[in-house]
Write a structure and sequence with these properties.
This protein is mainly α and 58 residues long. The protein has a domain at 18-57. It has four helices and no strands. The chain has helices at residues 7-17, 19-30, 40-48, 54-57. The radius of gyration is 12 Å and the shape is globular.
Length: 58
């Protein structure tokens, strides 16, 4: 069952689940379709220990 959530809620869910898990999933999905290739921003956030929510604070 899929949940319908807004864009902000999806970012919050990604932060709570963890960006490393999100990146792992995106890499797996990208093997089937390049649309899912993780953006470089995701690597920078993980490297710097930040979350998607931190982008709103900048």
């Amino acid at each position: 069952m899929a949940l319908r959530v807004g864009r902000a809620a999806r970012c919050d869910l990604a932060d709570r689940r963890g960006l490393m898990l999100l990146r792992r999933d995106l890499r797996l999905w990208a093997e089937e379709n390049a649309l899912w290739t993780p953006p470089p921003l995701l690597d920078r956030l993980i490297r710097d220990g930040l979350t998607l929510a931190a982008l709103n604070e900048a």
